[in-house]
Amino acid sequence: MFASLAADYPREPRTAEPDVLAAADRDLASGAISQAEYEAIAQAFASVVVKEQEIAGLAILTDGDVTHPDRLRPLVEGLGGVSTERTATLRDGATVLAPRFDRPPTWRSPITVVGWQRADEVTDLPVKQTLVGPYTIARLAAPGGASREPLALGLAEAMNAELRALASAGCPVIQVDEGALTTIGDDAAEWELYVETQRRLTAGLEDHHLSLGIYHGAVDPAGYADVLDGPYRSYLVDALAGPDAWRFVFAVPPERGVIVGALDADRSARDEPELMVWAMAWAAQGGRTADRIGVAPNGSLRALGRHETRRKIEEMGEAVRIASMGPLQEVAEALDPSPLESRMTVLRRLAEAVEAARSTR
What we know:
By secondary structure, the protein is α/β, with parallel strands linked by helices. It has one domain: TIM Barrel (Alpha-Beta Barrel). It contains 13 helices and nine strands. Helix 5 (134-140) crosses helix 6 (148-169), helix 6 (148-169) packs parallel to helix 7 and helix 10 packs parallel to helix 13. The longest helix has 22 residues, at 35-56. The mean pLDDT is 95.
């Protein structure tokens, strides 16, 4: 079992420290520092974020996408698009600028590889790279550019080169966030488009560990086969999204990994370890082994304060340590033997969602 971030991390400073990233953002905009100087400041900050995760007990780390205020912009501009002034919200909750592509997306050189390498250099633990997927980017695109279907396919082909570059550099896990999957419903034409984007995106990467991030909602059963027939070895699922999300978890074959998004990214309050341990235990039922089970936030942590976020990820690391103290089901039952009757409202509601998912499978 392991803990990992899902998406991004706050860019604000720790208590009593200067806000170096905000100052760097201003200095870059005014021309006071060069792009290279800005990147050095941002990477130094990212190194601190990596260490925070390691100390908190996370086992698969990221740079938290802290090197830019808009996590989508470097990818969009690296593929030949522009970031408009129109804001958009990713399904993980992060706010970004809507992209526009006036010409076909083109990959010219690695976009995220150097950042991943620098994060990887500061820890002996595995570091993953997270990218917003082509289907989702195309759904976010502002009007006035390429139409959505050719844009999605073009993005998939261009991003395939980026994924290959990351794999060649040694990145052990590449997480593709396709949050827009939860908006498709049973639209057969949209599922066909999604399948084709994934075929082009992942071509030649069948032997690499690709992980699919799904947020704030659930995949419609009409799309289960399309999602599960892909090359992804693990799925990050919002465990707090109700019965529909758990129906998908139960549909994932036991030889694939499931990372349960059981840390609530929408509130700064404490996250109960009982809930996270039980979420992992439910994901394990059906024969999934402990090495294929993880826990993560159910979305972006950027809207939370730095202090609150660090406390929450420490609680997530502690939940994994507790879960590892014995057979997972037995540990969960020792913490709370009857989750459907738990005094903790959040655990009781989660148990009710799981029970509802089981009853309609």
